[in-house]
Amino acid sequence: MTVIVTDVSLSRAEAVAKEIQEAGGNAEPLTIDVSKPAELDTLASYVFDKYGSVRLLVNNAGIETLGYTWEIPLPRWEATLNINIHGVVHGCRAFIPRMLDSGEECWIANLASIGAFSVMPTQTAYIMTKHAVQSFSECLFLELKLKNAPISVSSVMPGMLKTRIFEAKAGEGEGSGGEAYRKAMHEMMSNYGMNIDEGCSKIMRGIAEKKFWVDTQAEMTNDTVEQRVKFLRERRDPEIAESARHLLDL
């Protein structure tokens, strides 16, 4: 396969593409801002025109935003919603028609999160986007079934992986309300998170096996889902999970 590596930063895309090439693979880096639907349309046209088909689409772009809802500046709110939700939605909208026309077996993976089944104060902006991605992916799965399309849909739910998402610089423009939580989460992920290579291997295996539910740490997913089911069944008031209270110094 040729991997089309897209990022809002060309240097980051080039670095990933170089790693793939040095390992013997084929890759092409491109600059794309997924918060702009027109750029995703352009990307789809470019890739299909140059390579003929797209067998695997991974809607992975996402940012973490922390702070109290009313303290997060408007530009950061808009960026979070546009990248995390609209990037996934319009990535699918731009690519699926051409996938359907090809008649080939294809795969789509949308990055949700373990957060799609939980709630957390000061993480509201991010959490709501992941709930949205999860429900979107479920509906998309059913739509493609109705069309008898040879396209598999996976909702990818990483648990705790050693990514850059909680680095301090990632929080630029989000306000000050989430600083302590960002620092605590960054330290916890660094100390206890799963290695990225191991997590990605599990994710790719699940996608290849056409699983809708694709996670990295099954026990964490099961615990979170069970807590959510209990909350919905009992119709209790929302509450902070005991396992997360120390992160907010409660």
From TrEMBL:
Annotated Pfam families: adh_short (PF00106)
Coiled coil ranges: none
MF terms (GO), sorted A to Z: oxidoreductase activity
Keyword terms: Oxidoreductase
Superkingdom to which the source organism belongs: Eukaryota
GO cellular component, one term: membrane
Keyword Cell membrane recorded: no
InterPro entries in the record: NAD(P)-bd_dom_sf (IPR036291), SDR_fam (IPR002347)
Annotated transmembrane regions: none
Transmembrane recorded as keyword: no
Family, similarity comment: Belongs to the short-chain dehydrogenases/reductases (SDR) family.
Name this polypeptide is given: Short-chain dehydrogenase/reductase SDR
